């Protein structure tokens, strides 16, 4: 029987298998940040052991950094302490750190791919659930807890039960103006926020293959939002072209050797998945969420389900969610007033996302009722945005680019949406209070966010800009 | 470094019949700035427990004196979202030893097991039975026995068995953690690295 792409990578990294228990899985790349690593370093120090393979771990502060005045000392005492702790830990243990103000600093899931640290066939982990982003390169990448971060620091391995395998195929050509974010929000709205639990998902099909690397990262990034352990896409020429020539990518002969291996990374034709789902690309429209988990999404032009349309057992949670959001069951979404727009995060903080926003807002003006935060995913994205003139276009339209970090995606720093306010956000979670206590989040694509930013209310971007969308 | 041993507990339970409780609710991000593992229980379910003026929300279960105990009984898909282990630390630090649900998010489940917090997976019907029991008598007792892998409603004797892999079971019964195991097979890991070079 053939093997799935996931099996090929997983099986080649199993150091040992415990009977009726987990596998000992070898980790090629370990990414760490300031929030989920300090207790892990403390743990190995308490045991009196060293980091086993410091060269396989790379660190950057992202969750808890300010997005303005990064050249100054961090104002918040606890945040400063945590970021400094990361620096100390990395120095003490010989781990490469791209610290604040380093030209490579940024959100871990943006910098990994950008620097060529993320490569096909690797196992990649990070104490962050959006590690699934790296699966876009045909790697097995997933989020772990801090105890597991400690395991990787101590032994370069973790203990994991092997997940089941699911394949989600999106077939056909994506309609004009539909982005990767719409694709993944569509999938999650169908699968639900828990439908992928216990599975590792391979995204496949012609619509997925047509996506750029940035788009594929957006799709894999949100695998966790359907509960999946991770998501991955078989590498192809698009992948190889993206990786080639990047700072840490293999060069010369080494490149050729690796490339030959990467070309074997696909699911065999007779591979069997535990679950298979196929969607029709033609059915996908601009998407938006209306509730408090990412599965509660619909077409921008659609409406919130009525109470009767929700399964009886879920009605309590649904009603609680509607109350939190200040929406009524059955409401149309178009025209609802919005207060904030956030463009950024590991889901949509890449250069392609900023390009799309700039293209849309060019020649337009930000609506007066909107506060917009546009946050690049990394220093390199910021630099590129300056060089490409994106920053000028944004400023002309009344927007300002902030400095890199996770920012309002999880509101650990000062970038908090005030209580009761509505934010259309390109991030990944619309949980209660996710973007600040009492904040109300509606997830959407960068283009939809840009359209909302210029109209001040929920709008289908195709209605304003049909000719410009590709 | 050992985790707390788990064998058997008998306790009343706290009901949280809400579905899709994500880890941002269990412990909001703004409380993740600590660099140690201790003290997160104080902010467990912070934004459900306290209003914006930091006043306790009276009808939230943790503030309701009717409910107490070492068992948290939660609706389907508990612990979804962020991988923050702080969520498992917060639940455990608050004083819970067991979380019961009809569905757990993968990462939360793993994190719990690594911290001596036992996730007990039961059917939706049995979960409803537990909620009904607490509704009838908030002080109703439940018995969780890891050795026999059973969860019992004491008054009715109604019992459900739960799954746990035998490796993790041994770890919890003996207070071992995964790092001890991995450190013991370091030779194997080094040999694996050599075989790939």
Written overview of the protein:
The complex is a heterodimer of chains A (470) and B (197). Chain A is an alpha/beta fold and 470 residues long. Chain A contains 17 helices and 18 strands. Chain A has a five-stranded parallel beta sheet with strand order 5-4-3-6-7. In chain A, strands 11-10-9-12 form a four-stranded parallel beta sheet. By secondary structure, chain B is α/β, with parallel strands linked by helices. In chain B, 33% of the residues lie in helices and 16% in strands. Chain B is built from eight helices and eight strands. In chain B, α4 (106-113) links the parallel β4 (98-101) and β5. Chain B is globular and about 60 Å long. The model of chain B has no long low-confidence stretch (mean pLDDT 96). Chains A and B meet through α2, α3, α5, β8 and α11 of A and α4, α6, α7 and α8 of B.
Structural class based on helices, strands and sheet pairing of chain B: alpha/beta
Mean pLDDT of chain A: 97
Span between N and C termini of chain B? Answer: 32 Å
What is the overall shape of chain A? globular
Q: How would you write the strand order of the largest sheet of chain A?
A: 5-4-3-6-7
**Main beta-sheet annotation of chain A:** 5 strands, parallel
Structural class of chain A: alpha/beta
Distance between the termini of chain A: 41 Å
Summarize the structure.
The complex is a heterodimer of chains A (470) and B (197). Chain A is of the alpha/beta class and 470 residues long.
Keywords:
heterodimer; A: 470 residues; alpha/beta; five-stranded parallel beta sheet; four-stranded parallel beta sheet; 18 strands; B: 197 residues; four-stranded antiparallel beta sheet; 8 helices; globular
């Amino acid at each position: 029987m053939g093997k799935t792409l996931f099996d090929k990578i997983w099986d080649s990294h199993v150091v040992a298998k415990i009977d009726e228990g987990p596998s000992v899985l070898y980790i090629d790349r370990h990414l760490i940040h300031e929030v989920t690593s300090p207790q892990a370093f403390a743990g190995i120090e308490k045991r009196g052991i060293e980091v086993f393979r410091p060269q396989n771990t790379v660190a950057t502060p992202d969750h808890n950094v300010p997005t303005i005045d990064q050249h100054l000392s961090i104002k918040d005492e606890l945040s400063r302490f945590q970021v400094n702790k990361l620096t100390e830990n990395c120095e003490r243990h010989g781990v490469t750190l791209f610290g604040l103000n380093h030209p490579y600093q940024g959100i871990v899931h943006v910098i990994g791919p950008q620097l060529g640290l993320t490569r096909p066939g690797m196992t990649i982990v990070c104490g962050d659930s959006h590690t699934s982003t790296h699966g876009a390169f045909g790697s097995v990448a997933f989020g772990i807890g801090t105890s597991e971060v400690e395991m990787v620091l101590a032994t370069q391995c973790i203990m994991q039960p092997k997940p089941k395998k699911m394949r989600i195929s999106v077939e056909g050509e994506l309609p004009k103006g539909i982005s990767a974010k719409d694709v993944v929000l569509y999938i999650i709205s169908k699968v639900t926020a828990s439908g992928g639990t216990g599975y590792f998902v391979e995204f496949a099909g012609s619509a997925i293959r047509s996506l750029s690397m940035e788009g594929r990262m957006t799709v894999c990034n949100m695998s966790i939002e359907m509960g999946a352990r991770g998501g991955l896409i078989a590498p192809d020429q698009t992948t190889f072209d993206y990786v080639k020539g990047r700072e840490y990518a293999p060069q010369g002969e080494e490149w050729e050797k690796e490339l030959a291996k990467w070309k074997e990374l696909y699911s065999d034709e007779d591979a069997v998945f535990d679950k298979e789902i196929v969607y029709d690309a033609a059915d996908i429209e601009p998407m938006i969420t209306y509730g408090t988990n990412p599965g509660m999404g619909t077409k921008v032009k659609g409406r919130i389900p009525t109470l009767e349309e929700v399964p009886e057992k879920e009605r309590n949670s649904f009603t609680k969610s509607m109350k939190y959001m200040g929406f009524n069951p059955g409401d149309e979404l178009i025209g609802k007033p919005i207060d904030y727009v956030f463009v950024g995060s590991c889901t949509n903080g890449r250069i392609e996302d900023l390009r799309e926003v700039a293209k849309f807002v060019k020649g337009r003006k930000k609506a007066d009722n909107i506060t917009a935060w546009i946050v690049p995913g990394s220093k390199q994205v910021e630099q590129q945005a300056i060089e490409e003139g994106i920053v000028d276009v944004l400023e002309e339209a009344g927007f300002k680019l902030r400095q890199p970090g996770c920012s309002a995606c999880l509101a650990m720093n000062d970038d908090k949406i005030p209580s009761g306010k509505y934010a259309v956000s390109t991030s990944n979670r619309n949980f209660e209070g996710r973007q600040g206590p009492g904040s109300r989040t509606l997830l959407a694509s960068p283009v939809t966010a840009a359209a909302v930013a210029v109209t001040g209310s929920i709008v289908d971007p195709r209605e304003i800009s049909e000719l410009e969308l590709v | 470094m050992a985790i707390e041993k788990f064998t058997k507990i008998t306790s009343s339970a706290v009901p949280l019949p809400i579905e899709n409780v994500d880890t941002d609710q269990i412990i909001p991000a703004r409380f993740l700035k600590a660099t140690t593992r201790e003290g997160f229980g104080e902010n467990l379910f912070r934004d459900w427990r306290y209003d914006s003026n930091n006043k306790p929300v009276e009808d939230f279960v943790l503030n309701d004196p009717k409910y107490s105990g070492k068992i948290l009984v939660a609706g389907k898909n508990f612990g979804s979202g962020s991988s923050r282990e702080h969520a498992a630390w917060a639940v455990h630090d608050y004083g819970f030893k067991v979380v019961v649900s009809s569905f757990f998010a993968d990462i939360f489940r793993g994190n719990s097991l690594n911290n001596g917090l036992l996730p007990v997976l039961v059917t939706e019907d049995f979960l409803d039975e537990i909620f009904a029991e607490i509704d009838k008598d908030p002080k109703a007792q439940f018995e969780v026995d890891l050795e026999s892998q059973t969860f019992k409603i004491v008054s009715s004797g109604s019992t459900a068995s739960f799954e746990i892999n035998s490796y993790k079971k041994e770890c919890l019964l003996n207070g071992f953690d995964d790092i001890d195991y991995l450190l013991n097979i370091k030779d194997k890991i080094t040999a694996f690295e050599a075989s790939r070079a």
